[in-house]
Specification:
With 487 residues, the chain is an alpha+beta fold. 50% of the residues lie in helices and 8% in strands. Helix 5 (131-142) crosses helix 7 (171-182), helix 9 crosses helix 12 (241-252) and helix 14 crosses helix 15 (320-360). The relative contact order is 0.12.
Length: 487
């Protein structure tokens, strides 16, 4: 039975301006610089220079018509989170402006690196190939993935070339031209599986007795090698432990993902980290600096402000064109004032969140010792500085802090907690560090199973389940005991 009824509900909503303000929290130093440059280009009422506070207050107090010029009520969005204006902060010395003269500032340079595929095509151009052969090789290179592998079978590539490029090529000819591609640098590209990838690399190396043994292992005992069945390899090739160990070391020096050489280089060049904060240890006192050097001071344009005052004081007999001009100027002034306030609020929010993290992780910032990290979750920072949890999440996302011990992502400082046998809360990061130490110190000829690691942790005062040990081990990308075995 269908019924129709009326109900009332109360919802908080955010205007598009408030949504933009919240999104600004997610931006890191480089992104906020770009956002400011964009706003300066788009809004003639916003300009660089002057004192923010003095300028904004003067504009706001001197003219009551600086109230919002737009009504966004029809476009309001449902409230996902909200701001809190709690200004209580821990008692730390704080430099709100740019770097102090004593703070070293690293220079970061950005360039667009050559991609893996561009590098391969560049080498191909140096080969003595016909136009047809070059076209086919280029198509093969285009099908190589970022790891450096050709995952598609040659018959599918043959069909593609026929239907998409009207090039009729047999699988046999493709096989021949694939060897041309596989001869390019880095060694191993164009391989169709891991075995072929490693063989392509070992064959390019200068021949030695150990490398010939390594090649034999890859060609004839690959499955035994991957399963670490070393006894079968020793027996089959009649090798001593020492010779087998040298051959296996030679294989482990090969790159299972040759395309990653370029991926890693591009990631390094394109993802240079510029810290948003700098925390110094000044004789036991923590000092926070905001990285504002590239963020310009902003002010509302005096020219536009004077223009609006002139129009506003002369309202009589204004034409429609003049009224439209007045409205345009007012819009731009309101937008400039809002943007300046939003930048100030963003900086204040970032400052308060970072200071809260410094308070909870005070010992770590002084020592740099991972064991000094306290268990800390978003809720802890939220309760300390008065912001919503989602606001803390936005601030900690893609932000970095430079310390005396290196540069850390803010997310690094957040971790869950467990209790030790004394009932004290310890960070899961501390347990992971101990777990890693246990694995590093194990006898590699008989690696510790997860069950044995549980026993070791218990002896050290940490009651951890086997599945938890397995989870932490996987998070640290440490393989199971069988795959850690060495001769």
């Amino acid at each position: 039975m269908i019924k129709q009824q009326l109900s009332q509900s109360l919802q908080q909503k955010l205007s598009p301006l408030q949504i933009q303000q919240i999104k600004m929290l997610e931006l890191n130093s480089l992104e906020i610089e770009e956002r400011i440059r964009q706003e300066l280009e788009e809004n003639p009422a916003l300009e660089e220079g002057g004192d923010w506070q003095e300028n904004v207050d003067d504009q706001g107090d001197s003219n009551e018509e600086f109230d919002s010029a737009q009504d966004f009520s029809s476009d309001d969005l449902s409230l996902g989170d909200y701001y809190s204006d709690d200004d209580d902060i821990p008692d730390y010395k704080f430099h709100e402006n740019n770097y102090s003269k004593d703070v070293p500032k690293e220079q970061f340079f950005y360039s667009e690196p050559e991609s893996f595929h561009q590098h391969s095509l560049g080498q191909l151009a140096l080969r003595h190939l016909s136009e047809r052969e070059t076209k086919i090789c280029e198509y093969i290179i285009g099908n190589i993935d970022d790891d450096g592998y050709l995952r598609r079978d040659l018959s599918s590539i043959s069909d593609d070339l026929l239907f998409n490029a009207t090039v009729d090529v047999s699988v046999e000819e493709l096989e021949k031209l694939l060897t041309v591609v596989q001869d390019l640098d880095p060694a191993g590209i164009g391989a169709r599986d891991l075995q072929e990838c490693l063989l392509l690399q070992i064959k390019k190396k200068t021949k030695t007795e150990i490398r010939e043994i390594a090649q034999n292992i890859l060609e004839n005992y690959f499955d035994d090698f991957t399963r670490k069945h070393y006894d079968k390899i020793k027996k089959g090739l009649d090798l001593s432990d020492d010779i087998l160990k040298q051959a296996i070391k030679e294989i482990t020096l090969l790159n299972p993902k040759p395309g990653n050489l370029w991926s890693d280089e591009m990631e390094t060049k394109l993802s240079q980290v510029v810290p948003d904060f700098i925390v110094e240890d000044a004789n036991g006192e923590l000092v926070l600096h905001m990285n504002n050097e590239e963020i310009p001071e902003l002010r509302v344009s005096k020219e536009y402000s004077d223009m609006f005052k002139e129009y506003a004081n002369n309202k009589k007999n204004q034409s429609q064109e003049v009224k439209e001009t007045v409205f345009f100027v007012k819009q731009k002034l309101d937008s400039a004032k809002w943007f300046i306030d939003a930048i100030k609020q963003r900086q204040g929010t970032l400052k308060n969140v970072m200071l809260a993290i410094m308070e909870l992780q005070h010992d770590f910032f002084l020592s740099g010792d991972e064991s000094d990290l306290r268990p800390m979750i978003l809720k802890d920072i939220s309760e300390l500085c008065g912001y919503d949890i989602s606001t803390i999440s936005r601030v900690s996302n893609s932000k970095y802090v430079q310390t005396n011990f290196g540069i850390y992502s803010l997310k690094y400082f957040f971790s869950e907690s467990l209790q030790n046998e004394s009932g004290e809360e310890v960070s899961t990061r501390e347990i992971k560090a101990i777990l890693k130490d246990c694995i590093d110190d194990e006898d590699k000829s008989a690696p510790l199973t997860d069950e044995k690691l549980v026993i070791l942790l218990k002896q050290k005062g940490y009651e951890v389940a086997r599945r938890t040990v397995a989870k932490y081990r996987e998070q640290m990308e440490i393989p199971v005991a069988r795959l850690r075995k060495e001769l």
